[in-house]
Design a protein that fits this description.
The chain has 273 residues and is α/β, with parallel strands linked by helices. The chain is built from eight helices and 13 strands. It folds into two domains: 2-10 and 19-92 and 169-271, Rossmann fold; 103-167, no CATH class. Helices cover 32% and strands 25% of the residues. The strands form three sheets. The chain has a seven-stranded mixed β-sheet with strand order 8-9-10-5-11-12-13, sandwiched between helices.
Length: 273
């Protein structure tokens, strides 16, 4: 066992499913100089829950995600994972960025096992990890390829496999499909859901897209800007598998869109679906 930045022990690497973790955000505030970026954000995320953070540019979605990841400190408040305060980055939280963030001089396989290799996994274990996660994201045939030989969708699959290879309890995703074309984006949304439903890892997903949030999330957190805070928390009751053409889906889409656009909505309201 090795310590994590939440102050609790973290499990050694394997290719089995990691346990999901709960997150408590307790009146989190972030300031950059005189500018208040997040103001008294309070939210509880259940273990295994899929949550989308939705809002306009500048509302603090990515700032909140980075605070959960431990990349930036809070000015006030606290973020806890399973009751332990976040003090910095840790292997219990995996991050997937919009811009892939792959090492161009590494092969696909080398990118995927980079974290486990740093943590001392054996050569045999690294091969098992690479084979397992590349198969999960349907890239097992591309293990020896380099990032510049892949499409945008394939690169994002590599980024997802690399995050999962560390067996995080929490997956943090910052608009990972935002730069992709519509067909590839929808295909990857379904693949992500398939992976999430297989192991129910806690997932926090940042998006600008109402449709993406309605399709993916169990809970949608609508944020408001200047400063960033929560406007509404919406429970998504659309049955799975979700049909993007169903009346049920469009009703949820309209409800989320209304919460996003209504400037007079009281802050932190819980909206019943």
């Amino acid at each position: 066992m090795t310590p994590s930045s939440t102050g609790r022990p973290s499990a050694s690497l394997s290719v089995s499913s990691a346990p999901a973790s709960g997150i408590a955000i307790l009146d989190a505030c972030v300031r950059y100089g005189p500018n208040e970026v997040l103001k008294q954000v309070a939210l509880n995320v259940r273990p295994g829950e899929f949550v989308c953070l939705l809002g306009p540019s500048g509302c603090g979605k990515t700032t909140l995600l980075n605070a959960i990841a431990g990349f930036i400190p809070l000015h006030q408040g606290e973020i806890q994972v399973d009751g332990f305060p976040v003090r910095g980055p840790g292997g219990d939280r995996g991050m997937v960025f919009q811009e892939y963030a792959l090492f161009p001089w590494f092969t696909v396989e080398q990118n995927v096992v980079y974290g486990p290799k740093l943590r001392g996994a054996s050569r045999e274990e690294l091969r098992r990890i690479a084979n397992h996660y590349l198969a999960l994201v349907k890239l097992d045939r591309y293990a020896s390829a380099y990032p510049n030989q892949l499409s945008g969708g394939q690169r994002q699959r590599v980024a997802l496999a690399r995050a999962l290879a560390n067996e995080p309890n929490i997956l943090l995703m910052d608009e990972p499909f935002g730069a992709l074309d519509a067909m590839t984006r929808e295909a990857l949304q379904q693949e992500l859901l398939d992976l999430w439903q297989a192991d129910r890892r806690t997932c926090i997903f940042v998006t600008h897209s109402v449709g993406e949030a309605a399709f993916l999330a169990e809970t949608i957190v609508v944020m408001k800007a200047q400063p960033g805070r929560i406007r509404a928390v919406i429970s998504n009751t659309v049955s799975r598998p979700r049909d993007r053409t169903s009346d049920e889906y469009f009703a949820m889409y309209r409800q989320i869109d209304a919460a996003l656009r209504d400037e007079h909505e009281p802050l932190q309201d819980s909206v019943a679906a």
